[in-house]
């Protein structure tokens, strides 16, 4: 069995964090969660992750702003982490908007957990 992949979940909803943790832990991913973009950047200073699930609408620093900050990090490995947007406002954005911000993919809310698992696997298991 390969090593457990590490996923950082940036989401301000405790319900979504808990459901996402349960689903992805069951699928053998190691999950760390934070509540806003500033906490994402703080986590990245000390840890490596294989993927970030990024809520777009969060307090203090939203997902778009945080993604742009990650893409400009001096550590090229961290700057290239796959980032998947999680959003209930997907109609307000096009995939081009997400790509311009540096996001690799998106999943709309309410989350479909089969889509969640498939999308995470697509970006971390190569």
Automatic annotation (TrEMBL):
<dbReference type="InterPro" id="IPR001789">
    <property type="entry name" value="Sig_transdc_resp-reg_receiver"/>
</dbReference>
<keyword id="KW-0418">Kinase</keyword>
<dbReference type="GO" id="GO:0016301">
    <property type="term" value="F:kinase activity"/>
</dbReference>
<keyword id="KW-0808">Transferase</keyword>
<dbReference type="InterPro" id="IPR011006">
    <property type="entry name" value="CheY-like_superfamily"/>
</dbReference>
<feature type="modified residue" description="4-aspartylphosphate">
    <location>
        <position position="55"/>
    </location>
</feature>
<keyword id="KW-0597">Phosphoprotein</keyword>
<dbReference type="Pfam" id="PF00072">
    <property type="entry name" value="Response_reg"/>
</dbReference>
<keyword id="KW-0902">Two-component regulatory system</keyword>
<dbReference type="GO" id="GO:0000160">
    <property type="term" value="P:phosphorelay signal transduction system"/>
</dbReference>
<feature type="domain" description="Response regulatory">
    <location>
        <begin position="6"/>
        <end position="124"/>
    </location>
</feature>
<protein>
    <submittedName>
        <fullName>Histidine kinase</fullName>
    </submittedName>
</protein>
């Amino acid at each position: 069995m390969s090593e457990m992949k590490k996923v950082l979940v940036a989401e301000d909803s405790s319900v979504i964090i808990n459901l996402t943790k349960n689903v992805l832990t069951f699928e053998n991913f190691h999950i760390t969660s934070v509540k806003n973009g500033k906490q994402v950047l703080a986590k990245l200073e000390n840890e490596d992750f294989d993927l970030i699930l990024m809520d777009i609408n969060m307090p203090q620093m939203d997902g778009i702003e945080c993604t742009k900050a990650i893409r400009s990090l001096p550590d090229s490995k961290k700057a290239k982490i796959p980032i998947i947007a999680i959003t209930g406002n997907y109609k307000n954005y096009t995939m081009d908007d997400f790509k311009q911000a540096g996001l690799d993919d998106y999943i709309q809310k309410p989350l479909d957990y089969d889509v969640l698992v498939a999308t995470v696997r697509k970006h971390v298991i190569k």
